[in-house]
Design goal:
By secondary structure, this protein is of the alpha+beta class. 27% of the residues lie in helices and 31% in strands. The protein has one domain: TusA-like domain (Translation Initiation Factor IF3, 2-Layer Sandwich).
């Protein structure tokens, strides 16, 4: 697993989605749908329990041009912050 990008837990975001209990590809699909509702520059927070989400969101950001601002791990939860392109 890659080293998480450090993040301030109090960081601001525009929308949060909870994908706990869902496995690939559902967290990515839900994030893609949520990002489509946001204005350019808005920040999406995604909370997941899918261990593979760390690398999945890295690949998703590279493929879509959305910025992966940070990722963090807290026990069995993985949190991702993305900025809409």
């Amino acid at each position: 697993m890659t080293e998480p990008i450090k993040h301030d837990a109090s960081a601001e975001f525009d929308l949060e989605i909870d994908t706990r209990g869902l496995t690939c590809p559902l967290p990515i699909l839900r994030a893609k749908k949520a990002l489509a509702t946001l204005e350019s520059g808005a920040v999406l927070k995604v909370v997941s329990t899918d261990r593979a989400s760390m690398r999945d969101f890295e690949a998703f950001a590279k493929q879509t041009g959305n910025a992966l601002l940070s990722q963090s791990v807290d026990g069995a939860e993985f949190t991702h912050f993305l900025r809409r392109r």
